[in-house]
Every structure is written in C-alpha cells, then in structure tokens.
C-alpha cells in the first residue's frame, strides 16, 4: 500500500503529465522524484490536466520568494504557497476525481494544509511584532 507521501507523489506526477508506472518505479527507487514517461505528451488535455498544470505553475511562481537568509522566516514564507498549491490540487481532485479513497485524502489535505497555513501566518505575524 502506498502511504500518503507516495500517494501525493503519484498525484503530482500525474498532474505533471507523467505516466503512473514510470512515476511509481522512480518513486520506489528515489523517494518522490519522478521521470517523464515517453507518452506524457500524448495524453488527453482534459480539464483536470489543465487545472493541475495551472495550479502547479501558480504554486511554483509563488514559491519563488525573496530569500532573506533567515531560514525560519524563509521556510514559512515559501511553504505558504506550497501548501496553497497542495490545496488547489486537492480541490481539483475533489472536482474531477472519482475514487473515494483519493477524494478522502484530498479532503484531508485541504483541512490539514489550511490549518498549517494559518499556523505559518500566525508565526510570521508574531515574528514581525518582535522586530
């Protein structure tokens, strides 16, 4: 059985247009990294695929924060858009996905990531008041 990290890695791989077998094999060998499948460009450009690509692009752009050298604050500021991207992908799953187990996981991702974003924003706000 694939754990939550493996499931998320496969969801990300699928969203990026990677073939699940290639993604699974690569994940098993090297953690969460994946390789592009030979037929990745041949897949149908579905509404879900377009939504995943848009969410991925938005997340990666937003994660490109101006790093300050303060590892704690930089982590928090970069992780907020990362978590927002996870929420966006989970919401796409909830809109287009059909597998009850994956939909349950997506709902859990939304709830967990929202809570963690609130914690990160609160931490950053406290940090700013101490300056």
Automatic annotation (TrEMBL):
Segments of skewed composition (Polar residues): 26-35
Stored Pfam families: DUF305
Signal peptide: 1-25
Residues of the DUF305 domain: 42-124
InterPro entries: DUF305_CopM-like, Ferritin-like
Disordered: annotated span: 23-45
Record keywords, A-Z: Signal
Protein name as catalogued: DUF305 domain-containing protein
């Amino acid at each position: 059985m694939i754990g939550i990290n493996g499931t998320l890695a496969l969801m990300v791989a699928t969203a990026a247009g990677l073939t699940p077998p290639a993604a699974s094999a690569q994940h098993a060998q090297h953690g969460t990294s994946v390789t592009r499948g030979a037929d990745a460009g041949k897949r149908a450009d579905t509404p879900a695929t377009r939504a995943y690509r848009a969410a991925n692009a938005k997340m990666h752009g937003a994660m490109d924060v101006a790093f300050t050298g303060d590892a704690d604050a930089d982590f928090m500021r970069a992780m907020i858009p990362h978590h927002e991207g996870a929420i966006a992908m989970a919401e796409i799953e909830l809109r287009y996905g059909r597998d009850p187990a994956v939909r349950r996981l997506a709902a859990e991702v939304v709830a967990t990531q929202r809570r963690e974003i609130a914690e990160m924003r609160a931490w950053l706000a406290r940090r700013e008041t101490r300056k």
